[in-house]
Amino acid sequence: MAAQSQYEQLARQLSAIGAVKRGLARVLPNDCPPGSIAVLNLLDLHGEMRMSRMAELLAVDMSVTSRHVAHVADRGWLDRSPDPSDRRSRILRLTPEGKLLLTELSERYVRALGHYMENWSDEEVDQLISLLGRLREDFGDCRSIPSRLTDEPVPAPSGPPTARTSLQGMSDTP
């Protein structure tokens, strides 16, 4: 198991990923935020699905999912049709326009990643892919925090905050 100081360093690095996400978001059209891309990607990967499944795959509340889906549907990138087995539910399907947009966005992302990571070796990129996939898998659903993580009191830092004891500067915002 890694040392506490390694987890602290990892927490800082993961927080700094916000800058990477913002950099990638800059290549997106103004009317297509990252949440919309996630919806499109999941439909492309898994095929048609109910809204509840989309929320599960996004690992967010149904209200957040509804906002993302409405945004994408309003632009014609997905279709919401009644579920034949339950008329109260909707089946989400990627439209041809959504598929075309997804292809374009994927090309933009790949170009941006290629630009920023041009000095990385193939092995380094493969290692990052593998480790990020493993990290995401280990976090699982992410919609709830295991009680063993919240039951223990967090020790108060002694003295003024330092780089090791403060979470300042770790936010996802600039």
List the helices and strands and how they pair.
Layout: H1 4-25, H2 34-46, E1 49-50, H3 51-58, H4 62-74, E2 78-83, E3 86-94, H5 96-116, H6 122-139, H7 147-150
Antiparallel strand pairs: 1-3, 2-3
Task: Using brief descriptors, characterize the structure shown.
about 170 residues, 3-stranded antiparallel β-sheet, 7 helices, disordered C terminus, mainly alpha
Characterise this structure.
- By secondary structure, this protein is mainly alpha-helical.
- It contains 7 helices and 3 strands, in the order H-H-E-H-H-E-E-H-H-H.
- It has a 3-stranded antiparallel β-sheet.
- Helix 2 (34-46) packs across helix 4, helix 2 packs across helix 5 (96-116) and helix 3 packs across helix 4.
- It is globular and about 55 Å long.
- The two termini are 32 Å apart.
Give the overall shape.
globular
Structure summary, number of beta strands: 3
What is the residue-averaged pLDDT?
84
Structural class by sheet pairing and helices:
mainly alpha
**Rg:** 20 Å
Tell me the series of helices and strands, N- to C-terminal: HHEHHEEHHH
The profile of the biggest β sheet is: 3 strands, antiparallel
Spatial separation of the terminal alpha carbons: 32 Å
Portion in helices = 55-70%
List the total number of helices: 7
Strand content: 5-15%
Poorly predicted tracts of residues: 159-174
Tell me the quaternary state: single chain
Strand order of the largest sheet: 1-3-2
